[in-house]
Amino acid sequence: MSVFVHTLFSFLVVLCSFRLNDVAEACSCALSHPQEAYCNSDIVIRAKVVGKKLLKDRAFGTMRYTVKQMKMYKGFNKMQHVQHIYTDASENLCGVKFEVNKYQYLITGRVFDGKVYTGLCNFNEKWEKLTLSQRKGLNHRYQLGCNCRIKPCHSLPCFVTSKNECLWMDMLSYIGYPGHQSRHYACIQQKEGYCSWYRGWAPPDKTIINTTDP
């Protein structure tokens, strides 16, 4: 009997360790350019977080943030005004933490059952940390590039494989992520469907980087 109990206990320990590893490794996000985050989101707003409440609706709970919306950049077809943002209470499950009554944030997310959900895999940033080019991208440029594909380059050589791709090379920089293209460029579709990088504040007809170059 003692052998059986010992074996059962060992099995449960191993099982629990796997479960803990699953939770710890559950939040794994691929890097994305802010333009991609914008295009893939249902809602993009600038807001100040003014309150929070832990909802005990599941094992780890859901954090509901109350926000004061300053501006909506995307999502008018989903809702006219965002009052609450929902996220997992656990960072291991990709929950994002906002500070209350301190900063304005750019918040991106998806809408499910009339509620806005966000997480660590979405693009959420303090407004003061955004570059001028990123702010201008939110207003106009990013939308112009939603039919383009931003192709990440992790090691050389890298090439685009279609006319609607922009080669994203920030991961090659010794400075690290987020890099120069993330902070200062948008991938915009031109005539005949070709996509090219543009600096956020540059006139629309001025090409900065040609994506056909490796």
From TrEMBL:
Origin: domain of life: Eukaryota
Keywords, sorted A to Z: Disulfide bond, Extracellular matrix, Metalloenzyme inhibitor, Metalloprotease inhibitor, Protease inhibitor, Secreted, Signal
Signal sequence segment: 1-26
Membrane-spanning intervals of the chain: none
Pfam families linked to this entry: TIMP (PF00965)
Localization terms from the record: Secreted, Extracellular space, Extracellular matrix
Classification via InterPro entries: Netrin_domain, TIMP, TIMP-like_OB-fold, TIMP_C
Domain NTR: 27-146
Annotated family: Belongs to the protease inhibitor I35 (TIMP) family.
Name recorded for this polypeptide: Metalloproteinase inhibitor 3
Source organism (scientific name): Polyodon spathula
